Structures are given as structure tokens and as C-alpha cells.
Amino acid sequence: MNHGTILVFEVTILVLALFLGVEVISKVPTLLHTPLMSGTNAIHGIVIVGAMIVLGLPDKDTFTWIVGFAAVILASANVVGGFVVTDRMLEMFKKREPAKPVDESQDGKGT
């Protein structure tokens, strides 16, 4: 295969993946959007591992080093953000303690 055929093949896969992603995400109900997004952010751990593998290869040029380093930083931020969103979401489901009634003898009025 020549380079032109491979490029057309890869661009076709990219465009189909974009259309499929938009269709799948647009069908997700609003209540499920946050849990699904926080879970998919955690999957960026795979991107971190891949970027570290690329950065560990010998004989890489400056462009590869910069893109790999940026991938590690951005994917790390996404993973941390995904876990923060998940933690905040789970806090909403914790049982709250009922409010304690105010004891009138200790309300500060001194009567």
C-alpha cells in the first residue's frame, strides 16, 4: 500500500469514529452523563502509559518528546479530574445527619 491509500484509510476511520462518538454521546440521558464522563476520564490512564512508552524509546526527536510530554501532562490532569468528579458525585449519595435541635440553655442569650 502506498502512503496516500493509508492516509485515506486512517482519515476515513477517524471521521467514522467522530460520527459514532457524537451519536452515542447524544443519546446519553443527562443524569448519566457525569458518571460516564468521569469513568471515561479514568481510562486516560492508558494514554499516560502509551505516552510514557513513547518517551522511553531511544532516538526520539524534539517534536516527539514535546507531544509525548504534553500527552502525559494532559492525560494526568484528565485522570485526576475524573476521580475528583466521581468523588463529588458520590458525596451526593451519602446519608446526611439530621440537624440537631438547638438547646435553649446554650443558645448564648444567658436568660
Brief summary of the model shown:
The chain is an all-alpha fold and 111 residues long. Helices cover 71% and strands 0% of the residues.
What distinguishing features does this structure have?
111 residues; mainly alpha; 4 helices
Question: How are the SSEs ordered, and which strands pair?
Answer:
Elements: H1 3-26, H2 30-42, H3 45-56, H4 62-91
Span from first to last CA? Answer: 93 Å
**Percent of residues in helical segments?**
over 70%
Compute the number of strand runs: 0
Mean pLDDT: 83
- Uncertain segments are none
Element-level helix/strand string: HHHH
SS-based structural class? Answer: mainly alpha
Shape: elongated
How is the biggest beta sheet arranged? none
Count of DSSP helices?
Answer: 4
**Strand residue content:** under 5%
Taking Cα atoms only, what radius of gyration do you get, to the nearest Å?
Answer: 25 Å
Describe the protein.
The chain has a domain at 33-90. With 111 residues, the protein is mostly helical. It is 71% helix and 0% strand. It is elongated, with a radius of gyration of 25 Å. It has helices at 3-26, 30-42, 45-56, 62-91. The protein is built from 4 helices and no strands. The chain starts with a helix and ends in a 20-residue tail after the last helix.
